[in-house]
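#dry-run=false #mode=assembly
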Amino acid sequence: MTMEDKSYFQEQLEAKNDMLARTTDYMNQIENLLTEKNLHLVDLQRGVSDSINFAKLIQTSLLPDANILKVFFKDAAYKVVQKIGIGGDTIFIKNTNSGIIFCLLDATGHGIPGAMLSISGTLILNDIISSIEIDDPAVLLKFLNYRLHKTFRNDKNSIAHFEGIVFYYSSINNKLSYSSAKGKGFLFNSTGDIISLASSKTSIGENLNTNFDTFDVPFQKGEKLILFSDGLIDQFGGEQDKKYTTFRLKKLLVNNSEKTVSELIEIIYEECFSWKGDGGQTDDLSFKIIEF
Amino acid sequence: MIQDEYEFKVVYKDKYTTLSYNEELLMAICTADSEYIPIGEFKKVFLYVSEFAESSKIRYFVFDKRNLRTFHQPSMEWYFTIWKPILKEKGLVHHYKILPDLLWFAKAVEAGKHEIFQKYGNDIINGINITYISSIKELLEVLKKD
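#status=ok
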């Protein structure tokens, strides 16, 4: 090796060491920056989490006691599982002078906007029922439709909608009627048949001029009414990551026809959880079961 | 091959680098032929480029570093802060670089550039376009499309 070569390799070695030191220093700077950003994100995440947890407490406190329904029916229970703790699904139950009104509503969106709409819907419903004696579910939907449309200026930005189903039970004449705006429900009758409840094709709040229909529910003792939001049947999962569908829900109900309402609520929840598997929850989901 | 369409004439060569030029494209390519270019030799070839630019117009300058394995910070600092501004005055603003396909080398380049920009500010490359390419062929194809 010549002196020239030796000098070349010596210089290269020094340059390489320098390059290594500078690159290491730069990578350390990036690592420190990432650590700092990560701490900031953890802090933000904690803030958002605390906020959502408190919001969940507020939203949950608005949910009614299912036992109110047991004054009129043999058994009743419900479950609301919002996608991120808070969301757009809600259950509403309120006594009236002549009976009871109960609903299952699913607001557009989920998470924070869903929760805002769901709380607004609950407050508006409360306000309507406190102001006027209503014994026709379609009239109640018409009022709710009007109030939502006007409150959220839906003629300009059509964003505040609900899908849902409203029931009115008259304790005076033991009559149950309902009106549905894309709401979902089954009547599981004594012969083992599952009858889907009819529904209008328009959401609540979507169109000011929508008319809703009222249907009577001729029920027998021991029959069950199952109401649910689309979060249940639209849940993706299973081996081929497909929607759960009403087909599977009906099959589950038939296979568990002898179960009590509380048992059935847990069976549906566990089935949905198992269907979801490791995947995420597709939407807010809620379901309510009443046994006559 | 697209490179075969253009004849590049070698205008400078030493132990560490080769400088070739195409008159039609007004393109000069400085190819590193060794793993490391000592700073003296580095300055020598690049000063030659600036001299060459006096007599022959260079619109595109390519620095092909694929053979390099050592990124020498003082050389790069000189290259960025002294040489490029001089060549910018001579009208050369389009610089293309080809790096070896080695992640650690790319990180060393990133670290070096970060240090230079921190020291001198991002303004030092104002008005200069620096583009990283994977091959001369890629550049020729882009230029042919334009």
